[in-house]
C-alpha cells in the first residue's frame, strides 16, 4: 500500500512538473462564455475570435474556455477556477460577469482580466466593448426604407444600457429617413430561449410590424420572419442561413482583431488596464452583406456605413429629444461616451415604457 | 385572421409541449416514481427528432426518433433508481444534466441547419368552421396526439384494470406487492411512458415550435412541466387547463408589451408563474381531495423481499 502511494505521489509530481514546463513555454489565455460556443450568435462570435487568436499566436499561447457559465455566483466559481488553473489572461465575455470578474481580480492581482461590455475596471481588469449601435443605426436606416407600415418590431433582452442604446440608435437611424417611424419593443427577459423569442416575434408580427430586429441570441425570430414573409435583421452572427430571403443585414461581431492585439501586449509585458470601445472603423464589428433590398436602399446603407467609418456621421448627434419630449442634444452636439454607457432613457419615437 | 385567433394559435404551440411532457410525468408519478429528469429527456427528444428528420427528410420519422430516444434515455433512470435503488431526486437531476450534455454532443454537427417544419393536417369539413376550425383542426399531428393522449391516460388510469394497479403501486407499493402486482415492472413501464412523452414534447420543440436545433433549446420547459403535474393534482384533464393557462398568460404578456400598455415587463414576465400559483392556491384549499390524489408512495424506494 505504501509503495502504491509512493508511486502515485511520484507520478503526480512528474505530471505536475510536466505541466509546469509546458506552462513556461506557452502562456495560457482563457475565456469564460455565457452561452454555448455554437449558439449561432453572441458566444459563437467570441469563440471565432478565440480561434483567430489561436491561429495568429498559437505558437506562443494556448487557449482554454468554459461555456454555458450562468451569470451570478456560478460565474465567480468558474472565473476563480480559471485563475487557479494557471491562466495568465482571462476574457470574461458577458455583461453579467462584471462583479464576479472584479471580485476574483482582487484575489489574483497577478492575473490579467478583460471584461466585455462592462463599466467597472481595476488595475488588472480592462474592459472592452464594441460600438454595436453604429450597426443598429444602419439597420434603422434600412428599416425605414423597407417598411411599408412604418413600424418595426424590436425583441429586447434585458433593460441594460447596452440594449437601450441599441434601441435608441435604431430609432434615430430610422427617423433620419422617415420622421414618423415607430417601433414596438418586446422584452423577452432572456438572452437565450428559442421558443420565447419566437413567441415574441409572432406577437410583434401579429400586431402589424413588417420588419423585425432582435437583441437576443438565437435565430428563432429570423425563422418566424421568414415564415410570415417579412424582413428581419440578424444579431451578433450572420444569420443568413436561417432566412436566405429574409435577412437584410446583420451586425457581425468580429472580436478576433482585439483579442490578438491585447494578447500580444500581454505577451510583451506591455498590458495595462484600458477601456476600449472600438467601432465599425476598427473592424470589431462588421455588417453582413446587404441582401434582399433594392439597390437604392443598399446604396443608402453603404453610404451611412462609410460615413460612420470616416467619423463624419455619429449616430447620437442632435437635434435629439428624449422620449418625454425634453431636449437632450442640441443641433450638432454629439453625446459623450459616458452618457451612452449608462443610457437609461429612450429617445423620441420609441413606443414603449422603459422597464426600470 | 383576427388578433384573438393569432394569440390563441401561439398559445396552442406554446402549451402543447408542456401538456405532453407533464402527462408523461403524471403517469410516472402516479406509479410512485419522481423523475426530475424531464428537462433532460425532453432535450434528448428534441435533438433526436431533429437529427432523424435531417437525415431521413421525414419529420414523422423524426417524431418517432424523439419518442424512442426519450423512452430509452428514461430507462437509464429506471435502472438506477428501481434496480439499484439510487436516490430518485439526485438521479433525476443527474439525468437532466446528462441529457443537456449528451444532446449538445449529438447535435453538434447539425447546428445552424435549417429545420423541416412538421406540416399541419387539415381535417376536412371541421377545418372550415369559422374561428374554431383554423385553431383546432388545422394543426400538426403532435397537437392532436396531445389531446388524444390526455383522454387516453385519463381512461387508462381511472377506467382500466391495469391503470388501477398502477395507481395502487403508487399509493402503497407494499400492499400492491402483497397482492401480487409486479411493482418494479410497473414502475419501469411508467417511467418509460414518461420518457416517451418527454421525447415527443422535445420533438415538438425542434419540429414545430422552432424548427431548428440549438443546445439547451428546451430552456426550462421540463421544469414547468414538472410543476404542472403538481398543479393538476395528478389529474390528466387539469393538465390541459394548467398548460393552456400558463401558455395563455405567457403569450398575452408579450402582446401586452407590443401593444405598449405601460406595465413593467419584469412584472409581465412573472405573470404566468403568479397566475399558476394563484390557481394552485385556489384548487388546493381542500386538503382532503389534494391528499387523496397525491400518490402516497411518491419518491419512496421499493425493495421487494425475496
Helix-strand layout with pairing:
The complex is a heterodimer of chains A (356) and B (306).
Chain A: H1 2-25, E1 27-32, H2 42-57, E2 61-66, H3 73-84, E3 89-92, H4 98-107, E4 112-116, E5 125-130, H5 132-146, E6 151-156, H6 161-177, E7 182-187, H7 194-206, E8 211-214, H8 220-228, E9 231-236, E10 247-253, H9 256-267, E11 275-278, E12 285-287, H10 295-310, E13 320-321, E14 327-329, H11 337-341, E15 350-351
Parallel strand pairs in A: 1-2, 1-3, 3-4, 4-5, 5-11, 6-7, 6-8, 7-15, 8-9, 9-10
Antiparallel strand pairs in A: 10-12, 13-14
Helix pairs in contact in A: 2-9, 3-4, 5-6, 5-10, 7-8
Chain B: H1 3-30, H2 38-56, H3 59-83, H4 88-107, E1 121-122, H5 132-136, E2 138-139, H6 141-159, H7 161-171, H8 173-178, H9 183-209, H10 221-231, H11 236-259, H12 265-283, H13 287-293
Antiparallel strand pairs in B: 1-2
Helix pairs in contact in B: 1-6, 1-9, 1-10, 1-11, 2-3, 2-4, 2-9, 2-10, 3-4, 3-9, 6-7, 6-11, 10-11, 11-12
GO cellular component, one term (chain B): plasma membrane
Membrane topology (chain B): Multi-pass membrane protein
Pfam family, one (chain B): BPD_transp_2
Amino acid at each position: 500500500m505504501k509503495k502504491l502511494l509512493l508511486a502515485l505521489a511520484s507520478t503526480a509530481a512528474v505530471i505536475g512538473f510536466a505541466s509546469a514546463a509546458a506552462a513556461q513555454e506557452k502562456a495560457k489565455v482563457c475565456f469564460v462564455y455565457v452561452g454555448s460556443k455554437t449558439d449561432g450568435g453572441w458566444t459563437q462570435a467570441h469563440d471565432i475570435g478565440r480561434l483567430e487568436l489561436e491561429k495568429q499566436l498559437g505558437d506562443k499561447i494556448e487557449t482554454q474556455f468554459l461555456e454555458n457559465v450562468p451569470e451570478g455566483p456560478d460565474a465567480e466559481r468558474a472565473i476563480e477556477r480559471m485563475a487557479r488553473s494557471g491562466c495568465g489572461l482571462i476574457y470574461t465575455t458577458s455583461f453579467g460577469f462584471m462583479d464576479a470578474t472584479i471580485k476574483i481580480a482582487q484575489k489574483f492581482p497577478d492575473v490579467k482580466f478583460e471584461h466585455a461590455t462592462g463599466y467597472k475596471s481595476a488595475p488588472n481588469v480592462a474592459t472592452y466593448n464594441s460600438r454595436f449601435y453604429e450597426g443598429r443605426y444602419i439597420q434603422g436606416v434600412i428599416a425605414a426604407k423597407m417598411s411599408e407600415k412604418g413600424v418595426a418590431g424590436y425583441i429586447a433582452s434585458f433593460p441594460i444600457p447596452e440594449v437601450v442604446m441599441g434601441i435608441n440608435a435604431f430609432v434615430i437611424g430610422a427617423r433620419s429617413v422617415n420622421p414618423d417611424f415607430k417601433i414596438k419593443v418586446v422584452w423577452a427577459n432572456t438572452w437565450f430561449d428559442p421558443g420565447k423569442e419566437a413567441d415574441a416575434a409572432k406577437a410583434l408580427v401579429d400586431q402589424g410590424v413588417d420588419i423585425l430586429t432582435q437583441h437576443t441570441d438565437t435565430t428563432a425570430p429570423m425563422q418566424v420572419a421568414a415564415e410570415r414573409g417579412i424582413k428581419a435583421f440578424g444579431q451578433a452572427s450572420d444569420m443568413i442561413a436561417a432566412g436566405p430571403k429574409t435577412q437584410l443585414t446583420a451586425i457581425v461581431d468580429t472580436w478576433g482583431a482585439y483579442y490578438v492585439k491585447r494578447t500580444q501586449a500581454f505577451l510583451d509585458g506591455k498590458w495595462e488596464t484600458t477601456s476600449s470601445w472600438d467601432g465599425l472603423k476598427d473592424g470589431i464589428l462588421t455588417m453582413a452583406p446587404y441582401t434582399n433590398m433594392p439597390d437604392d436602399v443598399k446604396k443608402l446603407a453603404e453610404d451611412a456605413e462609410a460615413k460612420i467609418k470616416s467619423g463624419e456621421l455619429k449616430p447620437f448627434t442632435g437635434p435629439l429629444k428624449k422620449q418625454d419630449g425634453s431636449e437632450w442634444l442640441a443641433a450638432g452636439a454629439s453625446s459623450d461616451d459616458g452618457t451612452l454607457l449608462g443610457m437609461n432613457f429612450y429617445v423620441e419615437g420609441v413606443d414603449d415604457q422603459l422597464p426600470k | 385572421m383576427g388578433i384573438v385567433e393569432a394569440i390563441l394559435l401561439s398559445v396552442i404551440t406554446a402549451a402543447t409541449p408542456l401538456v405532453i411532457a407533464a402527462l408523461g410525468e403524471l403517469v410516472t408519478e402516479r406509479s410512485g416514481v419522481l423523475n426530475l429528469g424531464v428537462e433532460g429527456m425532453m432535450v434528448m427528444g428534441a435533438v433526436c427528432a431533429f437529427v432523424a428528420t435531417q437525415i431521413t427528410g421525414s419529420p414523422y420519422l423524426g417524431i418517432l426518433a424523439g419518442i424512442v430516444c426519450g423512452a430509452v434515455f428514461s430507462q437509464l433512470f429506471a435502472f438506477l433508481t428501481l434496480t439499484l435503488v439510487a436516490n430518485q431526486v439526485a438521479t433525476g437531476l443527474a439525468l437532466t444534466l446528462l441529457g443537456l450534455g449528451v444532446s449538445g454532443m449529438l447535435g453538434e454537427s447539425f447546428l445552424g441547419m435549417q429545420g423541416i417544419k412538421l406540416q399541419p393536417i387539415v381535417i376536412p369539413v371541421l377545418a372550415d368552421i369559422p374561428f374554431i376550425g383554423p385553431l383546432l383542426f388545422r394543426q400538426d399531428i403532435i397537437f392532436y396526439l396531445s389531446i388524444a393522449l390526455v383522454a387516453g391516460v385519463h381512461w387508462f388510469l381511472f377506467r382500466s384494470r391495469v391503470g388501477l394497479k398502477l395507481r395502487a403501486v403508487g399509493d402503497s407499493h407494499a400492499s400492491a406487492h402483497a397482492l401480487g402486482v409486479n411493482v418494479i415492472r410497473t414502475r419501469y413501464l411508467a417511467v418509460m411512458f414518461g420518457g416517451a412523452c418527454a421525447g415527443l414534447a422535445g420533438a415538438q420543440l425542434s419540429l414545430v415550435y422552432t424548427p431548428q436545433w440549438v443546445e439547451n433549446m428546451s430552456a426550462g420547459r421540463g421544469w414547468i412541466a414538472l410543476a404542472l403535474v403538481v398543479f393538476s393534482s395528478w389529474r390528466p384533464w387539469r393538465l390541459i387547463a394548467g398548460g393552456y393557462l400558463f401558455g395563455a398568460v405567457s403569450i398575452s404578456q408579450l402582446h401586452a408589451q407590443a401593444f405598449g400598455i405601460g406595465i413593467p415587463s419584469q412584472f409581465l414576465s412573472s405573470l404566468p408563474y403568479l397566475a399558476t400559483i394563484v390557481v394552485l392556491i385556489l384548487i388546493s384549499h381542500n386538503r382532503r381531495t389534494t391528499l387523496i390524489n397525491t400518490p402516497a408512495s411518491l419518491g419512496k424506494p421499493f425493495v421487494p423481499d425475496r
